[in-house]
Amino acid sequence: MKVYTKKGDTGETSLLGGTRVPKHHLRIEAYGTVDELNSWMGMLKDQAVAAPYEKLIKQIQDNLFTLGSHLAADPDANRMTLPELVPADVEQLEASIDQMEENLPSLQNFVLPGGYPANSMAHVARCVCRRAERLTVHLNESSAVEPILLQYLNRLSDWLFVFSREMTHLAGAEEVAWSPRKS
Question: What is the value of pTM for the model shown?
Fold first, then answer.
C-alpha cells in the first residue's frame, strides 16, 4: 500500500465509513489536533527526566489513537468496531495526578510555562489538549460525541498541568511564578 493515494488532492478526505468531507471539516480539525497532541506526548516521552512516566505516556498515546479513531469515524456510515476508551482510562490519569501532587509543593500562584524544557513541552501539550477539547466540544454540538472522549481530554489537560510541575520538580528546577503587575 502506498502512502499517497492522490484522493486528497482536491481538499477532501474520507472519514472512517467512507464519507468524503473537506479537510477543514470540524471532525478533521478535532482528530488532527488529537494527532498533534499525540506528537507532543512523544516529545515528552523522549525527555530523560520523564523516564519514570514512559509507560504511562505510551498508554496515553495509545488512548489518544483510540480517541482519534472515534473522532475520525462517521457516526452514520462507519461499520468498523473501534477500540474503546473506558472510565478506568480517566481514573488512571486521576490516580497519577493524585500521586504526583503528593510530592509537589502546594500551588500558591499561577505559574508561567518554562524553567525547564520538559516543563515547557508539557505546557505546549496542555494547550494543544485544551484546543482538542474545545474542538471536540464544538463537534459535539452538531454530532454527538461519546462523553468519555470529552472526559478523557479534560482530565488529560489537568494531568499535563500537574506533569509540567512534576517535570520541574524532578529536574530540580524552579517553577516560575506569575507576578501580576500592580496598578
Answer: 0.93
